[in-house]
Write a structure and sequence with these properties.
The chain has two domains: about 120 residues, Diaminopimelate Epimerase, Chain A, domain 1; about 140 residues, Diaminopimelate Epimerase, Chain A, domain 1 (Roll). Helix content is about 15%, strand content about 40%. The protein has an 18-stranded mixed β-sheet that branches. Strand 12 and strand 13 form a beta hairpin. The longest helix has 13 residues. The two termini are about 20 Å apart. The relative contact order is 0.17.
Length: about 280
């Protein structure tokens, strides 16, 4: 099984082109978990399965988490997939569209390494995220986990996010509370979790617990949602640098909360997955 591996600020994905495999082949949940495993597989934060046919965009894409669940959208995954398409010569234009289950985005390639993605419009509507309870914009609400009360805002940019503004954040905070927040009853489809520290009008910091993947060094959709929440709360301007353990993403917030996200992508490896991988039980 042929694969390519890239990372976007330490958030790494394996790209697998269905065209390299027999027609109609798909990955089983067990195969996904083994491929993504850090010790017993290639190791990654997920698998990008594409390009696929699409009636709405130039390319279709499916995104699988390490636990084999499917993500609606991934900002870093989309940047990586755009770089893969460029590297493989599957696109000649520097701007093209990609369809995911979370919607259609437009990607722009700059010099092959810097990728901008128009992520779509952020919504705070509980029905679209979704968040349990009556229809409303989910802003400055309370949630209790492990006896601690957090103020949170919720948002979607095609996938669900729970943003928690705090004066100080740390990896330990995300690792401790992220797992319980991900599966909290407030979030019927589970949620990505961002612990956010606002540094000034143009800079925020994030520590991220990603749905289906765990603690993550960087996330494009998390950066998009958190910057939009910070702007909605009046804490930042429309151009925001999002600082994460893996590096920095630039976010531009349009008047209707349409997000443009820019950041680098690094190619790591190309190779073949040996069939023996799938004969060993985890």
């Amino acid at each position: 099984m042929r694969f390519s591996k890239y990372h976007a600020l330490g958030n790494d994905y394996i790209v697998m082109n269905p065209g390299d495999y027999p027609q109609g082949m798909s990955l089983s949940p067990g195969q996904i978990r083994k491929i993504c495993h850090r010790n017993f597989g290639v190791g990654s934060d997920g698998i990008l399965w594409g390009p696929l046919p699409s009636t709405k965009a130039k390319f279709g894409l499916r995104i699988f988490n390490p636990d084999a669940s499917e993500a609606e959208k991934s900002g870093n995954g989309l940047r990586i997939f755009a770089r893969f398409l460029w590297d493989q010569g599957l696109v000649k234009a520097t701007s093209f569209t990609i369809e995911t289950p979370g919607g259609v985005v437009r990607a722009e390639v700059e010099n092959g390494h810097q990728i901008t993605v128009a992520m779509g419009q952020v919504s705070f509507d509980s029905r679209r995220i979704p968040v349990a309870g009556p229809p409303r914009d989910v802003l400055n609400e309370s949630v209790i986990v492990q006896g601690r009360t957090f103020a949170f805002c919720a948002a979607t940019v095609g996938n669900p996010h729970c943003v928690i503004p705090l004066p100080e954040i740390s990896p330990e905070l995300a690792r401790r509370y992220g797992p319980d927040l991900e599966v909290h009853p407030n979030f019927p489809n589970r949620t990505n979790v961002q612990f956010m520290q606002v540094l000034d009008r143009t800079n925020i910091r994030l520590e991220i617990w990603e749905r289906g993947a765990g603690y993550t060094l960087a996330s494009g959709s998390s950066s998009s949602a958190a910057a939009a929440v910070a702007h909605r709360l009046g804490l930042v301007d429309r151009q925001v640098a999002v600082h994460m353990p893996g590096g920095q993403i630039r976010i531009e917030i349009g008047p209707d909360y349409a997000i443009r996200m820019s950041g680098p992508v690094t190619k790591v490896a190309e190779g073949m997955i040996h069939p023996e991988l799938f004969t060993v039980k985890l």
